[in-house]
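Deliverable D4.2, example record:
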Amino acid sequence: MLSCAGYLQCARKCNGDSQAPFSVGACVFKCRQVVDDKTGPILFASAQCAMNWCSTANDMAAPRCESGGDPVGASVGTCRACTDNVQASIEGFSCDPNSSDCDATACASYYQLCLAN
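Output generated by the structure prediction step:
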């Protein structure tokens, strides 16, 4: 079973391996399937925080998620892009540092909690 630190290493490997036999998302999903009992709740709480952040208007931006998906009239993938950006560190992704969603401060504590686990 992976600790949170082990999960971070696994997720980063997925995102850095251009030769992966499957998509990055599928690779990260496989990492999530083998986390220990302490890590699962941290990842779940991080995902909930990201969805809450992206479902609320903030930094003068309209909500990027509605009911867990793209808002009506938004480009396909708007919600997913926002949640990925918010959780960039904990999911091993990189994001645009100029984006207000990139590692959003409101959810950053889950990354720190994961590092300490």
